[in-house]
Amino acid sequence: MERGTELDVAGAYSAVFMSMKRTGVRTSMIVDPANGRIPPLTPEAQKIAAADRDFRLALLQATETCKTKSVACNGGKYDPKPSPRRVDLPPRYNTGRMNRHDSPEDGALADRCLTGGLPEFGTAYGGSFRRIVQTPGGVAMFYDVGQGQGWQRNVVMNGSPHLPASIRQWFGDSRGHWEGNTLVIDVTNFSPKTDVQGSRENLHLSERWTRTGPATLEYVVTIEDPTVWTRPWTVRQEFTRQKDEQNRIYYEPRCVEGNYGFAGLMNAARVEDLAFAQGKGPNPATKDNATDFVGVEQDPFQ
Questions:
Q1: Which label site among 11, 53, 146, 148 has the fewest CB atoms less than 10 Å from its CB?
Q2: Model confidence pLDDT, tens digit, residues 178-212
Q3: Neighbouring residues of 274: CB distance < 8 A, sequence distance ≥ 6
Q4: pLDDT (tens digit, 9 = 90+) per residue, 162-173?
Q5: Are strands 128-135 and 292-293 parallel, antiparallel or unpaired?
Q6: Greatest distance between any 2 Cα atoms in the chain
Q7: Beta-carbon neighbour count of residue 16 at 10 Å?
Q8: What is the pLDDT of residue 83?
Q9: Nearest-angstrom CA–CA distance, 13 and 233
Q10: Residues contacting residue 298 through CB under 8 Å, at least 6 positions apart
């Protein structure tokens, strides 16, 4: 971007809250495939992704975003007349931000104070931390992520099988066992309302947590969903233990921004609808409330 432009200076969103961690010398968290990239989507997954993109672009078509050929409108076109699809339901349950606020489900998961869940690799806004508590009968992990979207996960360690396929959970069903000094966790039964690069209820994770030193931990997870990717892929991360004093602090996950803010967004949308109906303001469909986030131009489909 050009130095000194609005797009340039608007990129400093909450920089003071960003967490910088040592990540090693690898250029990608993905260690398999060897090229460090997520495998290609299956033909069926490509169709689903294309349908979702077409719907979101239709909601953007009358905005300045498409008129100026912003990166956020890649693949779309500008039309000053709002799309008739603006009142349609999305192709499948919505997890990302779209250009309308007609219902709570129109917002991204984070807008609704819902975390993205597993696998958790850190976020752009504030990184992430994990607190692991081991007991004789199980393991609990607390994930401190985002801006109050923290959550806790319990790993069942009694050798029992996974829950029936009819029972779906936001963070999946975690069943663990020990292989030497490595905690191995198998995770299935995800909810279709979560999304990992297009994968939902068929997501399967195979995790390995290994103590590599007095204050270091290695995390390796293989991610697979044959309905979405052409092959499984594996991510590796290394973690360093904090000081005891820092570990004694428990940060309560309170997503107050979304709890109060999203209700405000929906109320403001109704005010804009009423004003437009009375001839007092622009058509809300011509405003981009989805991709021009705090002044930072972004492509929501990447």
A1: 11
A2: 999 999 999 999 999 999 999 999 999 999 999 99
A3: none
A4: 999 999 999 999
A5: unpaired
A6: 71
A7: 5
A8: 95
A9: 32
A10: 71, 72, 291
CA 145 → CA 18, 30, 48, 66, distances in Å?
11, 20, 28, 32
- The predicted-structure confidence for 115-125, as pLDDT tens digits, reads as follows 778 998 876 55
pLDDT of residue 296: 45
Give Cα 259 to chain centroid, integer Å. Answer: 18
The first and second tokens of residue 185, run together, are 């966790």
Q: What confidence tier does 294 reach under pLDDT thresholds 50, 70, 90?
A: very low
